Amino acid sequence: MKRSESFFGIHFDFHATVESISIGASTTKEMVLDVINRVKPDYVQCDCKGHPGVSSYPTKVGNAAPQIAGDPLLIWREATRENGVALYMHYSGVWDSEALKHHPEWARMDEHGKLSPDITSTLGPYVDELLLPQLKELCDVYHVDGVWVDGECWATQRDYSPQVLQLFHEETGITTVPRQQSDAHYAEFSAFSRELFLRYLRRYVDAIHLHQAGFEVASNWAFSSFMPEPVSVDVDFLSGDFTLQSSINSARIEARCLVHQGKPWDLMAWGFSGDFNNRDFTTKPAVQLQQEAAIVLALGGGFQSYYIQKPDGSINAWEIEIMEQVAAFCRERQHWCHRSKPVPQIALFYSGQGMYRTAESLFHPGQSLDGMKGILQCLLETQQVVDIVMEHQLTGRMDEYPLIIIPEWAYIDPHIHQELLKYAENGCNLLIMGTKTVALFANEIGIELLDAPCKAKHYLAFDSMFGVLNTHFQKVKLSERAIEFASLYASNDNTSPVQPAASISIYGKGRIGAVYCDLGEKYLSANLATMRHFMQGIVQELFPNPLVQVTGSPYVDVTLATNHEHLIVHLVNTSGPHADKHIYTFDEITAIGPLHVKIQAKHAPQCIQYEPSGEQLAFEFKDCQISLSIPRLEIHGALIISGV
């Protein structure tokens, strides 16, 4: 099965080192068949070379581990081929410590002239002298179906090697060398460094496709939230792995960043949690992984879970039972979930250029996405249907979305800025959030900025509730056309000094809402109910008639999609301690409900089916609105609406 057709997979790796002993001694065909026969994955990914750069099979072209017993990769290939299961390799690309022990001249050089012991230069000979020969070996000798290349964009760093600087001078005409963010032309050098990664990626992807048609390649996190730009390399699928903890919140953003990129995609949950620095890991129960899977399935993606192989390359047989339970959960939802298409409602704008200008790493957002992440989480916890859209995904199709939200970006491309204003002028609605962003739209909002933004404690007042905010805020003076929407008080007292927290202004035929404090980054740490009520209120004011409304609990994510010519409302129970860093695993998720659902429709549906149970649900239809209730939601359920 090609990756574009695949839905569920299992990933194994263990990043072999030179200290690994007896690799393959316990790897048997029966072990692999046990996974295949019980879990029934579409594909398996297993280890062949991790970040240490030591291969866990007897490679003839790379750096094999010193103690390999037999050829474990042949066993994996034989068992998977005989059962029609695709086999992909976990292969570390840019990050290869062993290669640099033997060839330090292949290394990336830092701004002080020091060679990296781990990270290769994307302009160096590594790609032609090791990476490509090894991919061809995997293709020709082992006949694997493809590779999931790890340690790629997120591991790539700015390279000050002489050959890189020379090419930078030749291609840009810039003769100075910017070595820190405050230096002139640092942005240009960063953009050039990102372009070098794209050339590196294109070099080996195109070469291996030319060598063997049908060999499929993904570069981990390429063209994702880490790399918010159009897909410009012929990778066969997109993929990434969740954060070790707070995986639900990781899934929420990453799935939404991949779904509009025009490629088959999947996301990988770690089958374990714990303390990464101390390597204190414990296997997650099935219910925890099922909840993580549900976020991805509801957005139409494929899903895989990751288990660590033992130091000798074998697997923990007892974990197969968990794999089975997760696989069964996914399979009973596959028909209605896989490759579904989101229905546009709210667009949360991702300024890729804004991220690239603020993130310290070339492709790792770090804290630069905290504002957007917090606002996304707050929106989802008020049961809004939200897409994340990047510049290239939004331009030319803004009018598909009734509401566009701009979340705490200090930079927006001037062409996008003008298109956003035209969108509002023509009768649509914008919501501008955060101190940095309102400054970009001050004239259009109708405000005067008073002083510079500063961080201080204020109290957000909305709907008879107060909530403390210790975050950045912008003091403003509103014009007559900017109507105050909520207030910020100096203390937890409605007689204390007060200023606008938000406003709504008429702009042409549309409206622009503005929020004068940084709620997103604060919501990640505080998660105040007042923020949710405020967010729900201002969104309802700007977007009063969404296609679907769900009430009954803040712990349900709502996704609206189409698949097989049906309208589908996905409901995911997100309750539980998944965001608590002190809780590694949990084996119970409290059911929520009853949930009350209202769906706008021109005429009554033929039927509404609740999946995966197949139950036919009773509903009312009046004034172009479907109304129904879900008594209880365990983890995930989908309303399949026929004939609307």
From TrEMBL:
Glycoside hydrolase family 29 N-terminal domain segment(s): 43-170
InterPro entries linked to this entry: Class_I_gatase-like, GH, Glyco_hydro_29_N
Top-level taxon in the UniProt lineage: Bacteria
Pfam families, per database record: Alpha_L_fucos (PF01120)
Cleavable signal peptide: none
Annotated protein name in UniProt: Glycoside hydrolase family 29 N-terminal domain-containing protein
